[in-house]
Here is the input.
Amino acid sequence: MADLVRWNPAREMMSLREAMDRLFEESFLRPSWFGFADSAEALLPLDIYETEDHVVVKAAAPGVSPKDIEVTITGNVLTIKGEVKAEEKVEKGNYLRQERRYGSFCRQVALPDGVKTDNVQATFKDGVLSLELPKTETAKTKTVKVVVK
Here is the structure.
């Protein structure tokens, strides 16, 4: 037999508020939803992950020359700047379609605590910039063996 549940109007208002929050987040924080992909995330997508000894940052930068990339670390903020240069000059009216982006980009991300910024390894291969940032000894994961007595 089904139990009757008293109607609570606040429960529906909460779901309406959550739906409105989601709408505003998707429209203002993710503009590509409307077809605008000019955000820094779209121009320089990143993967950031941890290994036992390093924090690794990989940035997809196709069409960018390694000499046109500048990597700086200030405090715990990693900044990657660069420029995608046009290969040839084409008159604007002659284009049938232009989807590739040209120009400068800048991407900043906060690094986790416990990263040494003085011994960073940077490599660039096949349009992917890879940065290996070593961790400090205090930031490394330590395993403690439990002894049963």
The radius of gyration is 24 Å. Confidence is low (pLDDT under 50) at residues 32-36. The beta strands are 46-50, 54-60, 69-74, 77-84, 103-110, 121-125, 128-134.
